Amino acid sequence: MAWRCTVSNLRVVTSLCLHAPMPWQPLHRTVRITWPLRNLSTGRPALSARKFTDKHEWVMVENGIGTVGISNYAQEALGDVVYCGLPEIGTKLNQLDEFGALESVKAASELYSPLTGEVTDINKALADNPGLVNKSCYGEGWLIKMTIDNPAEVDELMDEEGYEKFLKSIED
């Protein structure tokens, strides 16, 4: 005797095979579960990958807000950062506008906006601890957050692979 049961909403197929019980022959049970495939598409991702400028700033966009910082290459070239001059919240910037400066024991460097938008936040922790730029340039050492007025500008920037190629070209 054999039973076959199908539950379609879970796509579970259970087979139970019973044989005449014999002392040397156990009951056999086979279960196979197949989960349904789901394809979800939400359009443009809410979190984009980090993008870079040729002036060594990076931006990562999340829900229409760009977080801006400097690259590892830039912070290594600067050395120990001792001062961060950042804009006021509400400052409107065009792409490649100068928005501040970093000073280190070796040099000073201007900061340039990777995108067009308005400054919505600055990293206040850098006032007391500018060394965060060196310690964690892609994390706690971010500089500003800004709105993105022209999302097409993001696509014009280099991805990480393109930025690595750019660095190799300027080092040669």
Automatic annotation (TrEMBL):
The H protein shuttles the methylamine group of glycine from the P protein to the T protein. Its cofactor is (R)-lipoate. This is Glycine cleavage system H protein. Residues 65-147 form the Lipoyl-binding domain. One of its GO terms (biological process) is protein lipoylation. InterPro entries: 2-oxoA_DH_lipoyl-BS, Biotin_lipoyl, GCV_H, GCV_H/Fam206, GCV_H_sub, Single_hybrid_motif. Belongs to the GcvH family. It is found in: Mitochondrion. Keywords: Lipoyl, Mitochondrion, Transit peptide. The modification N6-lipoyllysine is found at K106. It comes from Chiloscyllium punctatum (Brownbanded bambooshark). Binds 1 lipoyl cofactor covalently. The glycine cleavage system is composed of four proteins: P, T, L and H. Pfam families: GCV_H. Its main location: mitochondrion. NCBIfam families: gcvH (TIGR00527), PRK01202.1 (NF002270). GO terms for cellular component: glycine cleavage complex; mitochondrion.
